[in-house]
Amino acid sequence: MLSDPSSKYRAFAPVSLPNRQWPSRTLTKAPIWCSVDLRDGNQALAVPMNVSQKLELFATLVKCGFKEIEVGFPSASNTEFEFNRRLIEDGRIPEDVTIQCLVQAREDLIEKTVLSLMGAKQVIIHMYNSTSPAQREYVFGMSKQQIVEVAVRGAKWVKERIHRLEESGTKVTLQYSPESFSATEVEFAKEISEAVMDVWQPTPERRMILNLPDTVEVAGPNVYADQIEWMCTNIKNRESLIVSLHTHNDRGTGTAATELGLLAGADRVEGTLFGNGERTGNLDIVQTAMNLYMHGVPIGLDFSDMNAVREVYERCTGMTVPARHPYGGELFFTAFSGSHQDAIKKGLDAREKRGGGVWDVPYLTIDPKDIGREYREVIRVNSQSGKGGVAYLLESEFGIELPKELQREFGPVANDEVDRLGREVTAAELKEMFWKEYVERVSPLELKHFHADGTKEVFRCRTSVFVDGEEQHLTGEGNGPIAAFADALIAAGQPAFQVTDYREHALSAGTGASAISYIRVQTPELKSVWGVGVDTSIELSSIKAVVSALNRVLAKMK
Ligand SMILES: CC(=O)SCCNC(=O)CCNC(=O)[C@H](O)C(C)(C)COP(=O)(O)OP(=O)(O)OC[C@H]1O[C@@H](n2cnc3c(N)ncnc32)[C@H](O)[C@@H]1OP(=O)(O)O
Ligand SMILES: CC(C)C(=O)C(=O)O
């Protein structure tokens, strides 16, 4: 690294646009989406997809709702050519889907591309040549004029050939890309694009796609937006063009560049699922589309089973979607930290009480259910977690609704154990910890038998309890079964205690019991100690909760 990088690098000179309009606009409608997974995504893979992988990914893209799909570079290899033929001859392209093919401005390659498309209903022939100063000088060794001639010649070669497609009923659209547009002087990008338009003669009824790629990100997204606004404002016959964006992610701002480029007036967006593509990737369409969705804009794409889309993508491309990928990653919704979990739980509870409405749950930008994810993935527990997360998992997985005070008591118990384990714990493990701490507290006291009957005024109980393994037969009375049991225990020499809180509820199936009771007791020494009991009978669950509480009192008094 250089201590003064200015001796080697310099900032890209931005276009002068003092009256730029894009910063005060908002995005209120979705652009035309074009997936380039099967072309730009594919060309970036160490092992490009074979025909059957491309067919599977194509079917998934169609299912997601893409109406324009760049299916390949058919002049590049037999696999690419064959893929087009399979799509067309097997009738795999739905009526409303247009396939697009990339080709350089080279006659033999254009010829092969046209051949590969024979029989399709509608196609986009995407021709490009590179226009930036470095490309002109080092790669092509050509003047600006010569570079314009390459593009013009290419457009003519396409135009001369399309009658063969049109005669057999294929609708052809030309897409032209001045490749490396974002590193090209805007005046030259306009000049070369207009030269291609002069050949193609687009009209508002038969528009040409002008794709302005951020082939390599050389500046911030605002600079790209200025370039797009400049082009949209200055290019002739704007109404005969569909202005398209194609960003990469070299500076990590591909999505931002596209969003600002749309504000700047573009109509169409090219990109790939999860951002696969050359170097740091293409624009991530999932991210861009879902960003619009979370602002309430209909996107015309369907990611309601995001995991399935991710699974096909990973299998076909061999790439992995990072766990923290926006919308697609395994951890997109997940909160480990306590205060986040607490806020999410409260937000979700409030939403449930309210019965829906506008989404405003803290820390969750969208409802996991919208993309086929589950609330249970949202909160996961490790040593950074708090009582809220623990309570959420016990409730969502097992229907155990811990009273708030008990959450406060059990939270630190669970946290100590999770910290000791040094890893994430499952809901089942938390339940095990909870059972061990409360429900399975049967020492020194263990209930063997309990029976109570009485009137509204007075209940009498007969009970047998093991105390340190020795059975004791006890009786007691009170204004209910719990009070009668407490009376029996205290009379038998157990510490005096008062029941200060009592809750119970039915347990969901799968927990092995039908009722759970929570009891808080107070002794002269201890202000608040909880006990929990589960049983098929509500009454017995409450009595067991008293035993649990008293066992915990005795443990604390040791
Ligand atoms: C930014 C992008 O993603 S652009 C898309 C890039 N995609 C790919 O490269 C994948 C598909 N491409 C290929 O498989 C191959 O490059 C092929 C089949 C198209 C061409 O292969 P080849 O002719 O053997 O080799 P190569 O690509 O090296 O040819 C480069 C030549 O084409 C010229 N060329 C490159 N791009 C273009 C273009 N868009 N229009 C016209 N000529 C071009 C170069 O100047 C060079 O000319 P030279 O041989 O006189 O120096
Ligand atoms: C061919 C063009 C659109 C391209 O892939 C790029 O510039 O990245």
Report a brief summary of the structure.
With 558 residues, the protein is of the alpha/beta class. The protein folds into four domains: 32-317, Aldolase class I (TIM Barrel), CATH 3.20.20; 334-377, Helix Hairpins (Orthogonal Bundle); 387-438, Arc Repressor Mutant, CATH 1.10.1220; 445-557, Alpha-isopropylmalate synthase LeuA, regulatory domain (Double Stranded RNA Binding Domain, 2-Layer Sandwich), CATH 3.30.160.270. The chain has helices at residues 37-43, 51-64, 78-89, 107-117, 133-140, 144-167, 186-200, 221-234, 254-263, 285-293, 306-317, 338-354, 387-398, 404-421, 427-439, 481-491, 538-557; strands at residues 32-35, 68-72, 98-104, 122-130, 171-179, 208-214, 241-247, 268-271, 445-454, 459-467, 470-478, 498-506, 515-522, 529-535.
How does this model look, in words?
With 558 residues, the protein is an alpha/beta fold. It folds into 4 domains: 32-317, Aldolase class I (TIM Barrel, Alpha-Beta Barrel), CATH 3.20.20.70; 334-377, Helix Hairpins; 387-438, Arc Repressor Mutant, CATH 1.10.1220; 445-557, Double Stranded RNA Binding Domain (2-Layer Sandwich), CATH 3.30.160. The protein contains 17 helices and 14 strands. It has helices at residues 37-43, 51-64, 78-89, 107-117, 133-140, 144-167, 186-200, 221-234, 254-263, 285-293, 306-317, 338-354, 387-398, 404-421, 427-439, 481-491, 538-557; strands at 32-35, 68-72, 98-104, 122-130, 171-179, 208-214, 241-247, 268-271, 445-454, 459-467, 470-478, 498-506, 515-522, 529-535. Strand 7, helix 9 and strand 8 form a beta-alpha-beta unit. The longest helix is centred in the first third of the chain and has 24 residues, at 144-167. Bound molecules: acetyl coenzyme *A and 3-methyl-2-oxobutanoic acid (KIV). 3-methyl-2-oxobutanoic acid binds next to strand 5 and strand 6.
